[in-house]
Design a protein that fits this description.
AP2-like_int_N; single chain; Arm DNA-binding domain-containing protein; three-stranded antiparallel beta sheet; alpha+beta
């Protein structure tokens, strides 16, 4: 899981590991945005 600031001090994006695709085995990433770091993390989980 990692965080990135989109707009300086105003918007954050959190990217986390999702479940693998059962057919191909490829990784899936889930990304969600929020006004705060905590809000973005809560949306991913």
């Amino acid at each position: 899981m990692y965080f990135r600031e989109l707009v300086k001090g105003k918007k954050w994006v959190c990217v986390a590991e999702g479940p693998r695709d059962p057919r191909t085995g490829k990784r899936k990433q889930i990304s969600r945005r929020g006004k705060t770091k905590g809000e973005a993390k809560a949306k991913v989980e």
